[in-house]
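Hey, I'm writing a tutorial for new members on how sequence and structure tokens pair up, and I'd like a real worked example in the thread rather than a made-up one. If someone can provide the structure for the chain below, I'll link this post from the tutorial.
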Amino acid sequence: MSANRLEMHNISLAFSGFQALNKVDFTLHGGSVHALTGANGAGKSTLMAVLCGTHAHYEGEVTINNQPVIIRSPRDAKQLGIHLVQQEVDVALVPGLSIAENIMLDRLAEPGMTFRWSRVRQLACEALAQLDVALDVRRSIDSCTLAEKQQILLARALSHHCRFLILDEPTAPLDQHESERLFAVVRRLQHQGIGVVFISHRIHELKAICDTLTVLRDGRLIESGPMGPLSGEQIVEKMLGHELSDIFRRRARRTAKRCCCRLTVCMMRRCCRIFRCACGRGKSSESPGWPARAKPSCAKRCSAPAKAGCSGAS
């Protein structure tokens, strides 16, 4: 059987006159792990929110296997096999219910569906087995770790005919060991023919797990293609719209113009009367006496005059 193919064509979305997305194209193949990246506010999560049915007033077209589909609600998306696992996992889980109930929540909510509890637990275990994860599905969801909750949401997607899976900043709340376990799960899903969108700012993770890359900037498509030829530096430059060398040169020039630290001390009868410290161009502070806070840093670098007068050191 050929792999599934999801395409978004000329997707535009505006909020009160602000253009969040501007004619963006996006393609996801089954069995692919597709990196979606960009700076904050680039439109990554907004584009995926359109795909998941959160924003119904978008312009453009979505097709699956060359057939146009209409997605105006999260229910529409799930019926098409499109599932989202967001960074804040708790908002998608029901406290007080068991792991099994949370995994099977979408199917239990379908009209006319009835299950024996033994069957619910069996199906939940089967979904976890697809991830190579073993949990006691009778446990309360409240006793689960953050990584386990993420696995439970992945299992829920698999239990509901998942064809396309969106992971929004999935490693943000995880430590390194938990992230590596997640990567193993993602590769397992990839081998099952599921298309995975991996949203992240962590370039080294994208290079490690993804085979395809799309970069957005200011709601526009900047780059889309194979991950292989691009270095981490090139990806960051596409995200920012500038070469990194230019950014560093501008920063170096600004730093060189700044005054690091300048002290002006007015002495009278060997007693410091006025203390002025300038740290940063155009900024200064003035206070009577010798401030205790200046001793560790400024005072060590500047010497006070031995007799009455006014002295400056920089």
